[in-house]
Amino acid sequence: MLQIMYTKISLPVCISLVVLIITTFVVPADANKVRIKDICQFQNMEETDLIGYGLIIGLDGTGDGKGTQFTIQSLTNMMERMGLTVDTKKVKVKNVAAVMVTAKLSSFNRSGSYVDVTVSSVGDASSLQGGTLLMTPLSDVSGVVHAVAQGPVSIGGFNVQVDDGSKIINNYTLVGRVPNGGKVTNGLEGPKTEKTEFFLSLRDPDFTTANRIAERINIKYGMTAFALDGGTVQVMIPDSLSHIIYRTRFISDIGLLTVVPDNTAKVVINEKTGTIVAGEHVTIEPVAIAHGTITVNIESSPVISQPEPFSTGETIVTTDSRITINHEPARVVHLKRVVYLSDVAKALNKIGATPRDIIAIFQALKQAGALRAELIIL
Fold first, then answer.
1. Over the stretch 142-166, which tens digit does the pLDDT of each residue have?
2. Theoretical Cys-Cys bridge with 191: which of 44, 157, 210, 370, CB 3.0 to 4.6 Å?
3. How many angstroms separate the CA atoms of 244 and 235, rounded?
């Protein structure tokens, strides 16, 4: 029997909103089937990252300040290329923001197609709301330009500030997107059409899942698929489907086949938000958990001492502090070997454990060897 003692000391200085999310599903095996295209990607499909530096204009006074010299220099250079002569010292950029522009380009994005782009502020702008990205070349790591981005920016939030300094912020306003804002001018080289094989790369490598994918393909098309390792499945294209039209249809049909993936037992914890997400196959060995709480409350109130009328004394302000300590005796809960995390949550709730308490308890369970799952802390 494992013994885990857990004690918490908390100061009510701030209030945190915590969320406990535990996913445990009991469904038939058929309901767990997923399409191969949802858990794999085709290795023959090349993808590259694009990056560029650009300017966003049309901001309502929320752009970069005087300290961002690169924004001023960029705006001046752009004006000079348009035949305008400007004095750098007199340029104001409060309606302009310098941004880095990024996008992803796959081999299926041919010249003339469009891709989404992301813009991120690199200066001291307070918001990109309402701005428009000016024409920005996007190049790969070798410096080859593949696309040009331009268009209105969508940030999905807002930032409102008044003269007294009060402001309201909804969502993050320094990163935005330009949907279909990047036009491909130089597409990547597409997959070689003469290839007689292709590879499926699992997004979450697992030997069992890779074997199931190969077996499912072989059931329908014969011995054409082989699991090379836990993350790669090789698929041979039959000679009867060697024509490009049939080959494309064959790859499409492969992606629509369904399998039941074998997921690894994982518990993901985000300590910043107090979120816990646990999948299936997570088990806990027999264990006893003791939980006690010590709460320290510190209250401070001002005490004002006024002098006598017409005297030369001064008003004195002092602080009266009161400290109270509440201690709850530790309560012990015994857990048998459980399969579902919902059982663990119910047992821990009985001893008054909060989501943040449960996070610390799970960490202690892992250290004690009682948690049979991979613990991932974000």
1. 999 999 999 999 987 666 665 555 6
2. 44
3. 16
Distance between CA 19 and CA 21 in Å, rounded? Answer: 6
Sign of CA dihedral 80, 82, 85, 91: negative
Look at 235 and 66; give whichever has higher pLDDT: 235
Domains and CATH numbers, the chain: 2-26+266-377 (no CATH), 34-45+192-259 (3.90.1150), 47-184 (no CATH)
What separation in angstroms does the CA of 169 have from each of 162, 174, 252, 371?
12, 11, 45, 40
Name residue 144's amino acid: V
CA distance 229 to 43: 14
Quick check: helix, strand or coil at residue 226?
Answer: strand
> Residue 214 — φ and ψ, nearest 5°?
-60, -45
The pTM assigned to this predicted structure is 0.58
DSSP E strands: which ranges in 211-260?
225-229, 232-236, 258-259
**DSSP labels, 168-189:** EEES--SEEEEEEEEEESSPPP
Q: Determine the distance from the C-alpha atom of residue 281 to the mean position of all C-alpha atoms in its chain, rounded to a whole number.
A: 24
